[in-house]
Structure formats: C-alpha cells, structure tokens
Amino acid sequence: MSTRAKSRLKIILDERGISIRKCAELADLKFETVRKMYNDEAKQYQRDTLGSLCKALDCEISDLLELIEE
C-alpha cells in the first residue's frame, strides 16, 4: 500500500461555485495547470502554484491536498 497526495481543489471550487477558469484568473495561473489539479491529474505540485491558489482562495495547503492510502 502506498500513500499519495490527492487534490481537494474540485471540492473547494464546487463548494464555492467557482469555475476552473475563474480560479485560474484569480490565482494568475494557466487554465491547464488549474484543470489538472482540479481533476487530480497533476503528477507534481509546484510551490508557486500552491502558494498562488492558497492566496487566491484564502486557504491553507492542507485544505488543497490530503494524503490517501492506495
């Protein structure tokens, strides 16, 4: 069994009624970067990306990512 980081961005955006495109604008990130994280398809998470999302969404990194066992 392995542990990996799972994105919670979809949950956060859906709860707040924010689209991927709007989130990308708010965080000043590329749409594709946010889309991959929204769909939990990102292979790695850049520090700057996480920082921009946390600032734009007024949340902590622990809100964006969770550890899951696979």
Question: Could you please describe the fold and organization of this structure?
Answer:
There is one protein chain. With 70 residues, this protein is an alpha+beta fold. The chain is 56% helix and 14% strand. The chain has five helices and two strands; from the N terminus they run βαααααβ. Strands 1-2 form a two-stranded antiparallel sheet. The termini are close together.
Please summarize what this structure is:
The protein is α+β, with helices and mostly antiparallel strands.
Lateral strand order in the biggest sheet = 1-2
The number of helical segments is 5
Order of helices and strands: EHHHHHE
Rg from Cα: 11 Å
What coarse outline follows from CA principal-axis ratios? globular
Mean pLDDT, nearest integer?
A: 97
Please provide the count of β strands. Answer: 2
List the topology elements.
Blueprint: E1 3-7, H1 9-16, H2 20-27, H3 31-38, H4 47-57, H5 61-64, E2 65-69
Antiparallel strand pairs: 1-2
Helix pairs in contact: 2-3, 2-4
Comma- or semicolon-separated keywords:
single chain; about 70 residues; alpha+beta; two-stranded antiparallel sheet; 5 helices; globular
